[in-house]
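Sequence in, structure out.
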Amino acid sequence: MNKVFGYIFSPVFYLFFGLMLGIFQPVQWLCYNLGGYSAHKKSVDLLNFFLTYSLLLLGTSIRFRNSYQLPSDRPIIFVVNHQSMYDIPALIWFLRKHHAKFISKIELTRGIPSISYNLKHGGGANIDRKDNKQAITEILKLGRRMKENNWSTVIFPEGTRSKDGRLKQFQFGGIATLLKSVPNALVVPIVIQNSWKLVQYGSFPLSFGEKLSWTVLEPIEPGQLTPNDITQLAENEVRQKLNQTT
């Protein structure tokens, strides 16, 4: 029935989702050019509120859990498993007070209403995966912005989305590069569950009635730990929550 209802409700969802992207393109432009970073960020937060809860049109349940008092006076590196493109709007919305930035493929900075504009002007890192030097430079610049502004960054250390929900091994390179610029950053794992099920039939139809959740796990103080140790600890926490073994 998830697939059957998906055929009915996916067009409604895509229409609303696309409408929001179209509306907020000029809204972002106005906010950025008239009000600078602060106004632009508010417009992006509002956009991602609508994008997140547009999933209700698919009968999706959305739940964000956080049992920890996360600091607002130091940078945070959020280490997150990745299951679908629908992971991202909720992370932007629910982590909005932490000014969460993303490391994105530079190709995404062109051609996507609202999303491309935010990637260009929102303060994240846009990297060329074919140019290792450029990628490292951009991530280091992001780290400096985190340090200067107490911003945070969301990093997907699997490197690619998991199409079946099975956790891939975490790579430590991105975390290590960020910690060079912001050694005082707190590392916070987040586990995403079931967003892969939305796209289990592909982009159409989207699956109806799935239960999505984003759960903040126990923060990790870097201290004297190596980036590899930190990455392994984060992976273990996420894997345990998913009830998956290596």
